[in-house]
Amino acid sequence: MLQQAYDFKDECDALYEVLLPLEESDYNKVTQFKGWTINDVLAHLHYFNYLAFHSLENEERFVHEYGAMRKSREAGETIREATDRLINYSKGKKLLSEWREFYQDMTKPFASADPKKRVKWGGPDMSVRSSISARLMETWSHSQAVYDVLGLKRANTDRIKNVAVMGVNTFGWTFINRKEDVPAERPFVQLTAPSGKIWEWNTSDVASRVVGNAEEFCQVVTQTRSIEDTSLRVEGAAATLWMKHAQCFAGVPRTPPAKGARFIAPVS
To answer: Which of 63, 90, 182, 234 has its CA 20 to 30 A from that of 40?
Structure first.
């Protein structure tokens, strides 16, 4: 059984518990992420879960649905406008229920699938393990905007190791995506997990390294926090360049948030 699928469900469940007590009007709260509302965040997660499910279960359906999204974007719709239309403008508690039901239903097929099976996506094909890990990462990273706008400190668990692994594995991608040379030296990464465990990647006999809190590392590689707003210890040229533009998600190069731009809002 693919553990990442259950970690994905658990991350969704954690967000669900945060959203469940909200009033209908709360879903219109504007977050610090590109001016998206909580409705926008939830709609985005729901629609791309839908695409990921069909990439596993029905390749022809995925090609059709992804093509519809691409055509909408080419016609001038924003990703929020296209997503709203493609989920029939579902909002608030109705959207919350639809998202929850769908992520629960998609967990079992992913959990029982061959982790190495290749599935289609918007960019290159990927493995089933990578596909569901990406859904977990997106859920975790977009959830940060919700926690922030509601003034909540998230209680993370060691399942964020999935996000950290993606962050480490996309070291080269960060540079390739920006059409920059990939540093020859891969930084040593040592992170303290929420449980207190120590996670390490790459060899420690190099000049470049990133050392510190696993949550903060995950926030930087998902671009939900500026590196300057963390206590991460970054040493060496390769690590410094990486953390400046780290991006563990697909798509065009994105600029990380400026110092102080993303934070837990004070509760009014």
So the answer is: 63
**Chain mean pLDDT for the chain:** 96
pLDDT tens digits for range 38-60: 999 999 999 999 999 999 999 99
What tokens appear for 210 in the block? 């990133």
Structure-derived torsion over alpha carbons of residues 46, 48, 51, 52, reported in degrees to the nearest 10? -100
For tokens 């998206």, the residue is 36
- In the CATH scheme, what is the homologous superfamily, with its name and number, of domain 3-155? dinb family like domain (1.20.120.450)
Sequence-distant (6+) residues with CB within 8 A of 261 are 32, 226
Going by the DSSP 8-state scheme, the letter that residue 170 receives in this structure is: T
**CATH no., domain 161-245:** 3.30.1050
Nearest alpha carbon to residue 168 among 145, 184, 197, 191 = 191
